[in-house]
Amino acid sequence: MTGPRVAVVGAGSMGRNHARVIADSASAELAVVIDPNEPVARSVAERYGSSWAADLTGLDAADAVVVAASTEHHYDITQEILRLGLPVLVEKPVCPSLSQTLEILHASEAAGVPIMCGFLERYNPAIIVARRMIARPLYARAERHSPYAPRITTGVAWDLLVHDVDLISRFFDGEDPVSVNVEAGRFHPSSLPGTEDVVDVSMSFSTGVASASASRIGQRKVRTLLIQTLEGMVEVDLLRRGVTLYRHTTISDSSAEGAGFRQVTEMEVPEITGREPLAAQFTQFLDLVDGKVNAAAERASIVPAHRIVERALSSGALTGPAVPTSAGIPG
Questions:
Q1: What is the pLDDT of residue 253?
Q2: Which residues make Cβ contacts (< 8 Å) with residue 139, sequence separation at least 6?
Q3: What is the CATH number of the domain that holds 106?
Q4: pLDDT at 323
Q5: Does the residue 218 lie in any domain?
Q6: Nearest in space to 138 (alpha carbons), one of 9, 270, 242, 230
Q7: Could you give the angle at the alpha carbon of 208 between the alpha carbons of 186 and 92, nearest 5°?
Q8: Domain range for 64
Q9: What pLDDT score does 316 carry?
Q10: What does 22-67 look like in DSSP terms, one character per residue?
Q11: Are residue 19 and residue 164 in the same domain, yes or no?
Q12: Are strands 222-228 and 139-145 parallel, antiparallel or unpaired?
């Protein structure tokens, strides 16, 4: 086996997926799975031919690290990894605050150690195709809704919204919004105080406007992105990895009696091919470790989405008291 020995910290759902992708890679080796829950972590490690460790002392066997632990532990874990001088891929968000995220990024820069954030949707084949089709976006609208997941302790902004504001920012060339407005609400009785279940954000850029909606009280998963220009509109279904381009035209109809016009909407559905986003993201991480990706540019690309989420959470009050789970459901 050639390539770096990669450790996975966290054996939850994302950690298991990262372990699978690393084990399947011909360019890396799954060195160790680290999690204090021995039965779960050992099971993952054994499944993919690796070893288990209860804590970060297991990093002695690693050349690079993927952090897939719960968000509230990212700061302490990543600081220790950087202290050890190991390149790191941290699941999004890096930290659930801009100040802590910037502290991590500054520590990475000072140590000369590459860092990457797990913005998985960047590697969605549908997004890659859509970015090729859109040159000058004027309006973007994202929706990311999910059923409630009690295991997530942070609010929906850091858990879900961060993906879409990252995509929107990249469509607008990484520009910081001129303004950010938000409406947010906490409604689920199991949500921790101060965390939001629903958030709607509107953003104004120098060349256009955008909005994003995230909810964890939905009854099905929704992952969509709409981008409009003067020449066309692109709809992206991130779950199905589908893209549809619409162009609306008005054609003079000389065959009609008198002056006539005919409106036509053309649709283009490109074929979407590409690798599993998690595998494509891991390849990018290996290139970062190998020095093939500019570490400073990768580090800088992490900031806009974290800054937008921070601005959103600080610009609006959290509304809506927790309600009984039966509220709004007919008896």
A1: 64
A2: 208, 209, 210, 226, 227, 228
A3: 3.40.50.720
A4: 46
A5: yes
A6: 230
A7: 45
A8: 5-118
A9: 64
A10: HHH-SS-EEEEEE-S-HHHHHHHHHHTT-EEESSGGGGGG-SEEEE
A11: no
A12: antiparallel
